[in-house]
Amino acid sequence: MFKTLKKLFIGLVVLAVFVLVAPKVASASGITAISDTMSRLQVSQNSSHQIKFTTQNAIQTTSDTITITFPSDFNFTSKNINTLTMTTGPSTGLENSQTIQAGAGTSIWGAVFSDMQNRILTLTSPTNGASATHPVNASDKIIITYDSTNSINGSSNITYNIGIAVAGSSSESGSLAVSLLTSDQISVTANVDPTITFSLDHTSTDFGTVASTSVKTSSPNITFQTSTNATSGYTISIQDQGSGSNPGLYNSVSSYLLGSADASYNNTADLSSVAGYGIQGSSATATIAARYDQTSNTVGGLARTAQTLASFNSVADSQQVTIIAKAKVTGASPAGSYADTITVIATANF
């Protein structure tokens, strides 16, 4: 019995000594909130990667590393570390921008690609550790971004796993999955019918009584409104009825035509000897044809064939063109009623 107790006591002493001198082993815990937001999910396409995760432990000791391992079907050949970014922070992970270069330095993370086609990225913490400008604290969020340059997806439409590991003063690991597609884009088509709308605010205008001593303007002015989705816009043309043979204001009883022609009734020495009839055009958006782009008492003559009044060379929404009609008679102009009909034509230029 004594010998047995003696052996048990010696065993307990040895166990106690082992516990006291055994080396400490860093506890393993998993990183959380892991994701990879990619710009393309199509097989064999270039894609960016925004890899996010939350670390459970601080990564502040010199030579602590973060390793990202892509599966063997991904290709990062010729990938440059200058196309990587790394941010960290307690809330969004975007609070602090970390500096990355080929080797770790003061407040600088070292970055090295390895393995076939650069599928493994190893980041080494700054040489000044906890004194770095932006040390990574426990529970910080980390975002590591690859741009799409030389970042080629795997070639199969399957689910791939990407591994993330933290090693050094602490040990953490985790993985995420991405699912690639044969095609990640949706073809969307639509058709828009060609359209044009055209309207006149009035369909008649009246000169009233025209005297030989002054130029008379009819009332009201006529305004056209045009909308079209034609890529080359629209053209507005006008065509005059006149006497049926010549343009102008026609007195059918006297068979007399107050002719229409380009004319200026400004500064006329003997205004009573001048007779005529024509129009002016105006618009804030459309181009008025030179013939009708007149002011004061200068007018453009009408014609028995269609004449361009205004045009616009792009899609148009509710654009307006206005015509102003002016007339002048002489003392020899026969009394009576005069009339004319102007036909307006709007053409969409698709």
SSE diagram, text form:
Layout lengths: L1 H20 L6 E3 L1 E7 L10 E6 L10 E5 L14 E6 L6 E6 L6 E7 L5 E5 L16 E6 L12 E9 L3 E9 L16 E5 L15 E2 L4 E7 L5 E7 L7 E4 L4 E4 L3 E2 L11 E7 L4 E2 L9 E2 L7 E6 L3 E13 L13 E7 L2
Parallel strand pairs: 1-11, 6-7
Antiparallel strand pairs: 2-3, 3-9, 4-8, 4-10, 5-6, 5-9, 7-8, 10-11, 12-14, 13-23, 14-23, 15-22, 15-24, 16-17, 18-21, 19-23, 20-22
Major sheet: arrangement of strands: 1-11-10-4-8-7-6-5-9-3-2
Subunit organisation of the chains: single chain
Q: Give the terminus-to-terminus CA distance.
A: 112 Å
Given as residue ranges, the uncertain stretches (5+ residues, pLDDT < 50) are 1-28
How many discrete domains?
A: 2
Proportion in β-strands:
35-45%
Q: H/E series, N to C? A: HEEEEEEEEEEEEEEEEEEEEEEEE
Could you please say which CATH topology of the largest domain applies here? Immunoglobulin-like
Task: Using the alpha-carbon principal axes, give the shape.
Answer: rod-shaped
Q: How many H/I helical runs? A: 1
Helical proportion, percent range: under 10%
The main pleated sheet reads as: 11 strands, mixed
The count of strands amounts to 24
Mean pLDDT across residues: 91
Tell me, what is the CATH class of the largest domain?
Mainly Beta
What does the radius of gyration come to?
44 Å
Which structural class do the helices and strands define?
A: mainly beta
